[in-house]
Amino acid sequence: MSDTSKKLYIETLGCAMNVRDSEHIIAELNTKDNYTLTENLHEADLILVNTCSVREKPVSKLFSEIGKHNLHKKEGAKIGVCGCTASHLGKEIFRRAPYVSFVLGARNVSKISEAVKTERFLSVDIDHDESAYTFGEYRNSLYKAYVNISIGCDKKCTYCIVPHTRGEEISIPPELIIQEARKAAKNGAKEIFLLGQNVNSYGKRFSGMREQKIDFSDLLNAIGEIPEVERIRFTSPHPLHMDDKFLETFANNPKVCKSMHMPLQSGSSAVLERMKRGYTKEWFLNRALKLRAMIPDVSISTDIIVAFPGESEADFEETLDVMRQVQFEQIFAFKYSPRPLTKAAEFDDQIDATIGSLRLDRLQSMQDDILDVIAQSRRDKVYAVYIDELRNNGFLAGRTDNNALVQITGDESWLGQTINIKITNPKRLCLYGDSVI
Ligand code: 5AD
Ligand code: SF4
What we know:
- The chain has helices at residues 16-33, 56-72, 84-89, 92-96, 112-117, 162-166, 174-186, 216-224, 244-252, 269-275, 281-294, 313-326, 353-377, and strands at 6-12, 35-37, 46-51, 78-83, 102-105, 121-123, 144-148, 150-151, 170-171, 191-195, 231-235, 259-261, 299-306, 330-335, 382-390, 396-400, 405-408, 418-426, 431-435.
- It is of the alpha/beta class.
- The chain has 4 domains: 6-123, Methylthiotransferase, N-terminal domain (Rossmann fold); 139-257, Transcription Regulator spoIIAA; 259-377, Transcription Regulator spoIIAA (2-Layer Sandwich), CATH 3.30.750; 382-435, CATH 2.40.50.140.
- It is globular.
- It starts with 5 loop residues before the first strand and ends with a strand.
């Protein structure tokens, strides 16, 4: 790349979807406007923050973050705000931070090149359809590739702002997905990570007419046909759409990694009803325990919200009960955060924040005990670990098929290889071990 290139500094908050959107932004700005990445904010010509609005915390963080960037930026450098908070706050961002040059919503990523060239550019339309747009190529990792399979979300979970930031769900045409997966795999990414708000409702709606029906199970099998692809992961599936066909494809396709994210949110059927999740505690348990029975080594992760409006002590106990029965390998737990534009923010039985914190502590301490047992059960076992990262601490890192993080000291040439590792020192969040030849 030439020395005349302009420098881009980009900060990504939020989920994997945002990470992929940032890759698209980097690719577009590189090919169309000759920007190259820098990790040094002071030398950047363009500073971007790709934002998340799922909870209040990342939103307040945004304004303190861009305020700091504005103080430290190079003279003449531009600041742009992208992503979900851009979608939901729109021009309010210009009012609160007048030094911002443009605001680009989560569903408007393809307009990034136009945004950087237009003063006070604002594009936050959540009906904009980018489902068949072909972005430029850029990937953070050589070894694993995120591939979007849909945009938006059709669910109406009463706590969630995402439908207001990413709009309605549209599936990306399967030909484009397969083409992208094939290209990434040919370039060395043996692991393909499929992304969508609701992956297992894939195929419900495309932007054009399609003759052949295709669902998520069909898509998994089609990607499994690509010879260079060794591992397929995906996030997030919805528990409601975990029908038998999906569970069987998941269990039987050897390339599909045996780790399932099942966002529970609450173990109380009454709370689930008020969240409009569409399933009950019993349905969730039925699916999770069926998975455990079908695949002995499966790992199941989940998201949980505590202190949703009206959550009683008994409701919370139901969540703990599901945790006891399922024994999740990983939990992302959050205190309910009222979000603008959502139904639950209007419910009149909001729960005191201190109760939320206490429940979160109880949940975490129970999960720590569960994780200690799971970690110890892995001692002396041998796992095939796909090594995909050299960490700053000098360790090589990778994941087992069922998504446990493993770190090992070894040779850099192992990057991109699957190595058999015997676990000698299992910790709650990471397993340490030695290679076995
Ligand atoms: N408050 C707290 N957590 C939330 N999540 C989504 N909306 C909220 C909210 N208003 C959590 C859910 C979701 C994860 C990405 O974030 O658990 O699965
Ligand atoms: Fe991702 Fe949701 Fe945050 Fe948007 S609001 S970045 S979709 S987690």
